[in-house]
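can u pls check wat happens w/ LNRAV4D5
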Amino acid sequence: MSLESVRYRRGSLQVLNQLLLPQSSQYDSVSGVREGADAIRTMKVRGAPAIAIVGSLSLAVELTSNPPQQTAELLTFVRESMERLVGARPTAVNMKRAADELNAFLSREAEKPGVTVQELTDRVVQWAESLLEKDVRDNRLIGDLGAQHILQTTNAPAGVVILTHCNTGSLATAGYGTALGVVRSLQALGRLSHVFCTETRPYNQGSRLTAYELVYEKIPATLITDSMAAVTMRERQVSAVVVGADRVVANGDTANKVGTYQLAVLAKHHGIPFYVAAPSTSCDLSLPTGGSIVIEERPSQELTDINGVRVAAPGIGVWNPAFDVTPHELITGIITEHGVFRPEELRDGLSQGK
Ligand SMILES: CSC[C@H]1O[C@H](OP(=O)(O)O)[C@H](O)[C@@H]1O
């Protein structure tokens, strides 16, 4: 079984259908933007960085197979395609950032004298392709910087114990992962004792995806239910909680998988450091606080049903937000590819890292 969420070569994009994991490892072809948006909306593909990468590559494959003949047509197609992709899932900022950056890039390129529509199309495709390598590079930096920081600030002579939530590994990114990247770097240093991963109801990214990644890489780990987080922190010598992010805003408030906020409250209560691991592509400094973040609400069946079988009482009301916002006061540090910052240092830290 493979841990690659995406398989891409120019003109061909395949995504690992994460709805079928861990039972089966099936790659589905994505031939264009509509299929890319559907794969994101249905959560075949998920994870803030992976959403932006698959969305952008779905545009690249469509442009490769059906290149516009006029520059004006290209500009309109790219703008409308990115709007469609951004609309697939609203909370993670990565796809919106990619859309804004690509539209700005293309506008600048289109102003250059004598540039042809084919040259512009090629530059859009190359721009999308560059996201793959950049994401893996960023994740390895996040992993190494986060591991070093945790080793320097925690006393864990027998090895570090990490509690993590949702899936933030190779299945949520182009590879290596963010919070799971920190786990991988600690493991590579021989300084990881154990990982506790939460089930992460209702989509079960923890039991289906993170557990799959940890077993695959023979990283010592234990699956717990979301409701076991408090007793695990009290009785299992957790050194640090490390989670991912879908949108970190200017004051450090962070939207992440629902259940993250309560982990932060529990970590505070138990005196355990709480870290958000996220690339700068998951940061949105245009929003001053987390109150402005749109929280996606998903179909009630994702909560009431298991494998298509209803387990909740018929007729009960359902609230199924996919994310919650952790206030910056509960966050010890934000681990980025530019460094580890306290929430109040984030804006300056990112601007200096550019
Ligand atoms: C590497 S960030 C992954 C981030 O995205 C997940 O959300 P979803 O599975 O709904 O796309 C979750 O919030 C993770 O922390």
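The first strand starts at residue 6 and ends at 9.
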